C-alpha cells in the first residue's frame, strides 16, 4: 500500500477531527481508523494527531450509539485522561479552561482552593514519599515534610466543598 506523505503544516487533523464527529456505525469507525493510521506516512507530530483523531472518533461513535449527555461525555474525557497518560496519578487532576477567564461568573474556578479530601490525599502521599525516599534532595523532602505537617503550599487553602 502506498502511503501519502504528510506533514504538520498540511493540518490534515482538522479534517480528521471533523470527520470523527460524523461516525455513526462500527464500519465507519473501522474505515476511519484504517484510513487515518494506514493511508499516510506519519511523522512525529502527525502520528499524534492521527491517534487523537481515532480516539475522538471512538468517543463520538460511542456517544451516537449510547446517546450520552454532556455530563457523561466529561466523565469519558476524565476516564480517558486518567487511563491514558495519568494512570499512576494519586492526588487528582485539574483541567483549566482559560476561556472562562472572560466571564466573571467563573471566578470560583480560578480560586486556589483544595477540597479536604484532595488535601488529605496529598498529605498521605507526602508521608509515603518521605518514608520511601531518603535520598530525595533536601528542599523536596522539606516540602513533603511541610505538607505532611499541614502546611498548604503555593498560596492554596483547604476548604470543605460547598456546591451551593
Strand order of the largest sheet: 1-2
Beta-strand share of residues: 5-15%
Helix fraction, binned, reads 40-55%
DSSP E strands, number = 4
Low-confidence stretches: none
What is the count of structural domains? 2
Globally, the shape reads: elongated
The end-to-end span amounts to: 59 Å
Q: Please, how many helices? A: 6
Helix/strand/pairing class, anyone?
Answer: mainly alpha
**Rg (CA only):** 22 Å
The topology string of helices and strands comes to EHHEHHEHHE
Could you characterize the architecture of this molecule?
- The protein is mainly α and about 160 residues long.
- The protein folds into 2 domains: about 5-85, no CATH class; about 100-160, no CATH class.
- It is built from 6 helices and 4 strands.
- The strands form 2 sheets. Strands 1-2 form a two-stranded parallel sheet.
- Helix 2 packs antiparallel against helix 3 (about 45-65) and helix 5 (about 115-130) packs across helix 6.
- The longest helix is centred in the middle third of the chain and has 23 residues, at about 45-65.
